[in-house]
């Protein structure tokens, strides 16, 4: 009996179901419609002549045929993605699209950077993909990543752009007209807006831990823009990147930038793309343009 060949899209769906253990998780990761993906999986199983997953209330568990198909899908998709990166890395064109993944706090800065970059390179169009989690550059979810981290992103070709200044801020309405900057001893005495456990790895969250009593924490949030909003509302002081908070008319610095909280901004790409003409142009521009935007004294 002759079976029809599976396409890369079919293999991608099978791999995603295996990785997430459910059809719901797979369609969310791939951006597919649930009913369409359900029909596609049924068609794939009909083509191979075997059930690839056992369905239960706990999710989708691969059968023996499913395990074999997932392993083959991983190999074939990895090779396809490697070939795509290699071809992209040889791309000498200076036109087209560059996808940049970055956290939400950097969106205003990145938008201004892209506007300035487009003025120099009108043939290139930037696409911003906001994601606080690190999108996969291995699978070409993005071409370039801008990330704030104490260490260079692992497994990528990375260049340090600048040190990011971070200071304490408070609502202007709660401050005297000529309030002086506070030292650390005075700084920790007030009420604070803190980050929750999902951002516990950030240096600003670690600085507050052990310095500020829990009863002085008036609110916890899971994004830095939310911390800024709470600070603007007068809920307490917040440690924020200066490039983000200095732009707000509702808050003011109550400390100098804190060296122990400072982190670094990295420009990262997959090693196979580092010689791409488009990536090189953006990297050189970002290294020239971004330091003045994020390293604020």
Automatic annotation (TrEMBL):
GO molecular function: DNA-binding transcription factor activity; sequence-specific DNA binding
A family per Pfam: HTH_1
Segments passing through the bilayer: none
GO biological process, one term: DNA-templated transcription
Claim: Transcription regulation is one of the keywords in the record: yes
InterPro entries, A to Z: LysR-type_TF_proteobact-type, LysR_HTH_N, LysR_subst-bd, WH-like_DNA-bd_sf, WH_DNA-bd_sf
Keyword Transcription among UniProt keywords: yes
Alphabetical list of Gene3D superfamilies matching this protein: 3.40.190.290, Winged helix-like DNA-binding domain superfamily/Winged helix DNA-binding domain (1.10.10.10)
UniProt keyword list: DNA-binding, Transcription, Transcription regulation
Segments forming domain HTH lysR-type: 6-63
SUPFAM superfamilies listed in its UniProt record: Periplasmic binding protein-like II, Winged helix' DNA-binding domain
Family: Belongs to the LysR transcriptional regulatory family.
Protein name: LysR family transcriptional regulator
